[in-house]
Amino acid sequence: MNRAHETLGRVFSGVLFLTIFAAVPAWTQELRHAYLCSDIGAQRVFKVAASGDIVWEYPAVQCADAWLLPNGNVLMSFTDGAGEGKVANRGAREVTPDKRVVWEYKTTSEVWSCQRLADGNTLVAECTAKRLIEVAAAGAIVKTIPVKTDTSGHGVMRLARKLDNGHYLVGHLEDKAVREYDAEGTVLRDIKVPDVAFGAVRLTNGNTLIGYRGGVIEVDAQDKTVWHLTQQDLPDLKLYWICNLQRLANGNTVVNNWFMHQRRTDSPPFFEVTPDKKVVWRAPLHEKMGDPTAIQIMETEDLKIQNGGQIVAIGDSITAQGGYLRDMDAVFAKQYADFNIPAIINAGIGGQKAEDLITRFDKDVIQRKPTLVTIDIGINDVWHRVKEPHSDEVLKNYRANVTKMVEAAQAAGIRVLLCTPTLIEENASSEGNKRLIMYCDAVKEIAAEKKCLLADLHEVFLQALARKPADVQGNQITGDGVHMNATGDWLMAGEILKALGVPREKVQALIAEDKAASMVYLSESGGGSTAVLR
């Protein structure tokens, strides 16, 4: 199991139903996840992109548990209602991205849970058979653990997970309890919850996170409640059956809100909630979905752009030239069309320094009321004075002017992204680049002090220069040592987009289409660019 994300088993009752899918308008938000999920009503396993689009699907009857494995395959449970326990048409299977079944275990018992183990075996929870089994790659059952319950049939259990210490956590549905079994099947703990229990995950802090109908509860090693999420905490959502939970590395919890064999639009099927119970992400219900169940977060986009938000870029001639802004516009248009981001307003003027930007900042930025401003200035503050001795007073004024722009933007409710100056000559040892370090440090300090977003362009360009082949002469990422060519534009755009939360793959797709850009300098190895070497 990936320890960065601690995953609660996916556990549900399984009654086949017919559902009519109606289109539901999707909403956009800064934080977005790509995820794998199963859907009881749709009888499918889906891979969903961060945009909300379904990018892969596979038929699975009443699949209540699905995993994206490290090899790229998908492990899923299935329980076909036909035969009612007399035909072996239930179990677990592994499917490749091109939809080939490469492993399968079948049984007559209802199966709502499966898990690939570290030794390559697969844990399968046979609900109506009242047992946990470990199945080898060749299909043989190599271990059997009977579960302890007075309940029989469909309500025996849902989630079952094997822990790192060899114990098992099992959600006993109708017993309203999660039980921990040792390796031999002895019950070590019996954790009661307010309603039907679906399952649990053991967190890295030793606590146990449990999902039940109508809420989420976290208990410590002594079964004392340390966190409890109920309907009262989330008045704008409706909590149904909490089938799956995932504790993220940031401490937030992803909650699967199962709709109990109905298609509902009064609440999201999945959402992310902070420890202080603030919802920061809601998954839109795709038109193909009915009542989604299991979820596994595959990728997170913590975007720093807003739906329909205007961006203004202020700077000198590098900005005025506009190449990197056109690249950013292209990424937004192709990869985030649903965000409806207007073309970036170019407020660059050639030859300007920080002392010039501050005089027009109100007119060119504040009065345009953008949601975000990028500030890229500093090259001329050094370049135009490079033949003179360094002046601490000039640096002090530079810092003061950049700080004033940041404070003015923030006072107007505008988010600020600061850029460190790029480079002066394609020679890391040039006098201009040596002096730029002090200005870059000033920008980074202001960003930290004022809590701005930061794109460290200077570091990205130094890393690109380090990849320059020894036998190559002349400028490769700029036209004249300062102003960008296509490669330099992508270096700038990639790093700024990364600071805005755009995954590198989404930028790489556009870079690959630009025949004028040199991939040698757009490698991410050792640098910060969002592109990779082809």
Strand and helix layout:
Elements: E1 6-7, E2 31-39, E3 44-48, E4 54-59, E5 66-68, E6 74-79, E7 90-95, E8 101-107, E9 111-116, E10 122-126, E11 131-135, E12 141-146, E13 160-162, E14 168-172, E15 177-181, E16 187-192, E17 197-202, E18 208-212, E19 215-219, E20 225-230, E21 241-247, E22 253-258, E23 270-273, E24 279-282, E25 292-302, E26 311-315, H1 317-321, H2 323-335, E27 345-348, H3 354-364, E28 372-376, H4 379-383, H5 392-411, E29 415-419, H6 431-450, E30 453-455, H7 457-466, H8 486-499, H9 504-511
Parallel strand pairs: 26-27, 26-28, 28-29, 29-30
Antiparallel strand pairs: 1-21, 2-3, 2-25, 3-4, 5-6, 6-7, 7-8, 9-10, 10-11, 11-12, 13-14, 14-15, 15-16, 17-18, 18-19, 19-20, 21-22, 22-23, 23-24
| Overall pLDDT | 89
Structural class, judged by helices and strands?
Answer: alpha+beta
- Largest beta sheet, briefly? 5 strands, antiparallel
What share of residues are in beta strands?
A: 25-35%
Q: Which outline best applies?
A: elongated
